[in-house]
Specification:
Layout: E1 3-7, H1 16-25, E2 31-35, H2 36-41, H3 44-53, E3 57-64, H4 68-76, E4 84-88, H5 93-106, E5 110-114, H6 130-140, E6 144-146, H7 152-162, E7 167-170, H8 182-185, E8 190-193, H9 195-198, H10 203-222
Parallel strand pairs: 1-2, 1-8, 2-3, 3-4, 4-5, 5-6, 6-7, 7-8
Helix pairs in contact: 1-3, 4-5
């Protein structure tokens, strides 16, 4: 499977709408990425219930960007409820990412670093520092790196320089304009889809369509 569903919000006070969708699609996706708006609105009970439904890769999209000690304190709260944590790479390794990774390794959790982002503002800073970002990633050796499906040439560049062991996760599919399968064609391992699934009248059917389009896109790029 190559699809990760992103959930950034819920429309109910108890998160029941999120649980109902996940109950229908968890066996169709390889992971669930949970955003800050959702995490701030609900308590840990929702995370516990999500974990009961989806036993796969629960990714906390905390976008951590602080000194190592503060990031560790932040993740400590969630260590029993998630498998992976996303942090920014621009903060650097020493006394930053290194401390976070040590903590995650000791707790059997995976580190995912942001290499670039799917909005246009990423071109202003992140994309101008590609070589430095790649050096950080190769030094830290996280489990994964986030790269935009909206700019697949960035994916291609990273893949050629970080090898195949580090997983590439690509957001921006659907509402932000990237077509399913495009990021996979350029070297991504997973595509992240949020609103195109969560806002659909029938999330399960939308998930099926995206998976089909991923396969069709992969077939076309291999021709």
């Amino acid at each position: 499977m190559t699809l990760i569903v992103a959930i950034d919000k819920s429309s109910t006070n108890d998160g029941r709408d999120v649980l109902e969708v996940l109950d229908k699609i968890c066996n169709m996706v390889v992971g669930v990425k949970l955003g800050m708006p959702l995490l701030l609105k609900h308590d840990l009970n929702l995370l516990s219930n999500i974990r009961k439904i989806c036993n796969g890769n629960i990714v906390l999209d905390l976008k951590l960007a602080d000194i190592g000690d503060v990031m560790v304190e932040s993740v400590e709260l969630f260590k029993n409820y998630a498998d992976s944590v996303i942090a920014h790479s621009f903060i650097g390794k020493k006394d930053g990412i290194d401390k976070l990774k040590d903590f995650l390794d000791k707790n059997n959790m995976k580190l995912i670093l942001v290499g670039s982002m799917s909005h246009r503002g990423s071109e202003e800073i992140y994309d101008k520092e590609i070589d430095n970002i790649i050096n950080i990633i190769n030094d830290v050796k996280p489990w994964g790196v986030v790269l935009p499906a909206t700019r697949p040439e960035i994916i291609k560049t990273f893949r050629s320089k970080i090898g195949n062991e580090i997983k590439i996760l690509s957001p921006g599919v659907g509402y932000q304009g990237a077509k399913p399968g495009t990021a996979l064609c350029y070297g991504a391992d997973y595509e992240i889809v949020g609103r195109a699934i969560m806002n659909a009248p029938d999330p399960k059917e939308a998930t099926k369509i995206i998976i089909y389009e991923q396969k069709r896109g992969m077939y076309e790029c291999k021709k």
